[in-house]
Amino acid sequence: MGRSGVQVNKAHKTRVSSKSSRNLHKTSLQDRGRIGKPKGNHVKGAKAARLQRAKMRAAVLKEKMASGGLTSAPRVIVLFPLSASMDLNSLGEDVLKLLSTDGDVTSSSTVASSEYKLRATVADLIAFVASANEDISSLIDSFGSQCLSVLRSIGLPSTAVLIRVYLPSEFKKENKLKKMCASRLASDFMSLISPELSLNDENPYFLVCLQFMGLLKAQRLSVPHWRKQRPYVVAQKVGMLVDDKTPGKCTLLLSGYLRARKLSVNQLVHVTGVGDFQLSKVEVLKDPFPLLNERRKQNSMELDDSHDEEVLRSLVPDPMKQEPLVTENTPDPLAGEQTWPTEAEMAEADRNQKQGKPKKRSLPRGTSEYQAAWIIDEIDEEDSDNGDFDDDRMVLDRGEDQYSNQDQDFEDDKETLYVQDMDNETHNDSEMMDDENLTREQYEDQIKKIKEAHAEDEEFPDEVETPIDQPARKRFAKYRGLKSFRTSPWDPNESLPQDYARIFAFDNVARTQKLVLKQALKMEGEEEESRDDCVPTGSYVRLHIKEVPLVAASKLFSIVSTKPIIAFGLLQHESKMSVLRFSLKKYDGYEDPIKTKEELMFHVGFRQFVARPVFSTDNISLDKQEMERFLHPGPFSLASVYGPISFPSLPLVVLKISDADAPAFAAFGSLKSIGPSKIILKKIILTGYPQRVSKMKASVRYMFHKPEDVRWFKPVEVWTKCGRRGRVKEPVGTHGAMKCIFNGVVQQHDVVCMKLYKRAYPQWPERMYPQLL
């Protein structure tokens, strides 16, 4: 008997079959791969899969109807040349002529096309136009490359590429050049590049426009997420209403299509480059470019301005529901005053006292409990023998040494430092320094010579010189020493500047953001009949924005024909000032230095404002960040600024502004977090030079110039550039020299250093918005 050629294996024996195998017959073949184990007490089968597919289809259909329906706002098309040699006038005219019903190009840049069932304004779509010739290197010039970097940082919408071929009608050469241009552009656009449309002498603009409009109609538009979360209006008309009751102010009128989401008349709006304002009225006007066949039958003489601006509906804000325009917090001058403790606080203090008495310690007079945690527990043997204690000593934060590997090396050598044979001290340790009898001029010249000799070896940009005419304990009064930068505590609410009383802070930023976005989504999902204060998406509206500075409104009125003017609806709390943290990187093409607290223009999503940031290292594992004096190229840094609250994540573009030249693209990044509790520390390094060295002991000079300063900074650890670590033992002489003990042999050419830290804050900008200049 013949056997089949197909191998048949014996089935695996199981006592109990799994739930998924028992329910496999209930699932269609299409969904067997995606349906996993059931969750909960119910079984997901074919019905659940069908419901999920129906929801997805409904969501896609709703998005398609919102972006391309009869009542949707016109699509914004941007024609962007990649080089200065490209002329877009004829291409723009052909696009408008193709979309217009009668074939004539009107003065307006918005047309309605009933044939393509869409309206367009000449940016839901960016069409990059390249000029191709035999020189492929000139396809994108330097300015075009810089603009591409800016657009990528903000977030590109849907894109298309048009290639203008300057060759005679030779099919082979044209295709070869087109492939070379497409290969060159693919490195810049990658997956964003669409099928290229080539233009030559025999394939004019008008024919390519037919292909281009077909691509626009069929393409599903992708919009950056931050534009979907807020309603906005791209103004087509700008007007002003001057009121004599408010001098210097006026009511700004912006007319345009409402996009993305519904707008409430009780919301605050932000006019780009001007600021945040309240609405006095919102008027829903008749659509000036309706997408209906009846428009063809109407006479063009009847479509005057008064007819197009017919008011269909008018909305007025409710004073009880309108969101107040609060930008800065009003500081309370008595908020920091000491008050009498309550009964609960006194009872808690009694309980803490009964639990156990703290160990008695000898502390300087006037030392608080917080400062007492910084003082070294082990007192020098010399001080214990004499029974004296210096009241003029700087406090030092020791932190948790057992968690720091770097500090553990020094702890291992503590016995070496403290169990030194005092008999080995030479007479050089106690005698006067050689510069005790020098005059002031000779003393300064000697310091200058030593500094110049070590200038070539200065690898630390944080090194500063101690002034001679001012005590170091006063000059560096705001600085302190840290035993461990990672583990030493620093109170975030200690000695805050006055500007911190003007800002707002959230207890939980993530929770607040979730509630705000949920509230905005709820308003979007409500029916139009249930909300009488909202305007639906796609309506042609006129916003009455009150109390706008007259100077800024005049500038907007003059540039409306050349530059886009956009008004965004703000979410809750987005008008209040706080401390914003940005993760940013310096642009590779920008070579000038960017200094901390330098005036820069920040473009954060829909906002642009002027700020003076403080740069710091971006280390998520630490609660403290070290300040950077300059924004260094290469890695990402953290920038902290005072600015209006915007919920992350939002793209960031930083421009360097100057009075003479145009703004230059300097850096890019994104909004990382909101909150003033992050600690940024500015580090300085004081340097001294060994004069006499005896094995592990050295007499160091020129770090300080007074013995009182040596006693003040005595608790702070010192270290050398060759890797030795030690402590200050005592001052020597009257010119600020000191005796130090290290954990190893010190070289004569070594440099002794001391690190000090103070908290750094951003600077409040003198001007917030560029249009108010």
TrEMBL record:
Where do Basic residues bias regions lie? Answer: 35-48
What residue spans carry the region label Disordered? 1-48, 316-337
Q: Where would one find the signal peptide in this protein?
A: none
* Gene Ontology CC, one term: preribosome, small subunit precursor
- In this protein, which residues make up the domain named AARP2CN? 209-289
Q: Which InterPro entries match?
A: AARP2CN (IPR012948), Bms1/Tsr1 (IPR039761), BMS1_TSR1_C (IPR007034)
Q: Name one GO molecular function term.
A: GTP binding
SMART domains tied to this protein: AARP2CN, DUF663
For this entry, list what GO says about its biological process: endonucleolytic cleavage of tricistronic rRNA transcript (SSU-rRNA, 5.8S rRNA, LSU-rRNA); maturation of SSU-rRNA from tricistronic rRNA transcript (SSU-rRNA, 5.8S rRNA, LSU-rRNA)
Superkingdom of source? Eukaryota
> Where would I find the Ribosome biogenesis protein BMS1/TSR1 C-terminal domain in this sequence?
463-760
Q: Which PANTHER family match?
A: BMS1-TYPE G DOMAIN-CONTAINING PROTEIN (PTHR12858:SF3), RIBOSOME BIOGENESIS PROTEIN (PTHR12858)
This protein is called Bms1-type G domain-containing protein
Q: Which organism is it from?
A: Brassica oleracea (Wild cabbage)
